[in-house]
Amino acid sequence: MTITVRRIGPGFAAEISGVDLSTPLSEDNWERIYQAFLEHKVIAFHDQALSAAEFHKFGERFGTIEPHTVEMYRHAERPGITLLSNRTELGRPKGIKDAGSHWHSDYSYKAVPAKATMLYALETPDEGGDTLFGDLAAAYQALPKATKASLHGLQARHHYRWDENRNHPEGRWRLLTQTERDQTPEVVHPVVRRHPETGELSIFVFPGLTSGVKGIVGKAPGESRALLQGLYEHCDQAAFHFRYKWRKGDVLVWDNRATMHCATTDKLAPDQFRSMWRINTTGTAPVPG
Question: What keywords were assigned to this record (predicted)?
Answer without folding.
Answer: Dioxygenase, Iron, Metal-binding, Oxidoreductase
